[in-house]
Amino acid sequence: MFDFEKLDVYQKAKAFNKEVLMLMKNTKPIDIVTKNQLRRASLSIVLNIAEGTGRFNKADKRHFYIMSRGSAFECVAIFDVLKDETILNEEEFTQFYGKADELSRMLFRMIGNLSSN
Predict the structure, then answer these.
(1) What is the distance between the alpha carbons of residues 117 and 104, in angstroms, rounded to a whole number?
(2) Would the pLDDT of 94 be above 90?
(3) By the 8 A CB rule, do 115 and 62 touch?
C-alpha cells in the first residue's frame, strides 16, 4: 500500500471526485468545457495529494498540497457558476461546497504542518 492511500484526505478526495463524476453522468446539461474543467479540477485534488505524499522534502510536499487545495477552490467556483445557471440547485451546491470546504481545511492543516518555522 502506498502512503497516500492511508490518508483520510486522500480517501475523501477520491469520494468527492466520484460524486463529481456522478453529477456529470446524471443528465446534467453542463457544457463540455465546464464539464472537462470540473472533471480535471476534481481529479487534480486526488492526484496532487498522491504526488505530494511521494515527495521527500517538505517544500515539495507543501507545493503539491497547495496545488490540490487550489483545485478544490476551482471546483467551488465551478459549482457556484453552475448554481447561478440553475444547473445545480441550492441543496446540491451546499453538499458539494461542504465537501470541498472539508478537503480545503484538511489540506490547509497539512500545508501548515509543512511550513517553515
Answers:
(1) 22
(2) yes
(3) yes
pTM (2 d.p.): 0.95
Q: How high is the pLDDT of residue 116?
A: 65
Range of the domain at 96: 3-114
Q: What are phi and psi of 85, to 5 degrees?
A: -85, 5
| CATH number for the domain that contains residue 17 | 1.20.1440.60
Total domains present in the chain: 1
8: its cell numbers: 483520510
pLDDT tens digits for 49-89?
A: 999 999 999 999 999 999 999 999 999 999 999 999 999 99
| Spatial separation of the C-alpha atoms in residues 58 and 36, rounded to whole Å | 31
Residues 6 or more apart whose Cβ sits within 8 Å of residue 10 = 4, 46, 49, 50, 53
In whole angstroms, what is the distance from residue 89 CA to residue 11 CA? 26
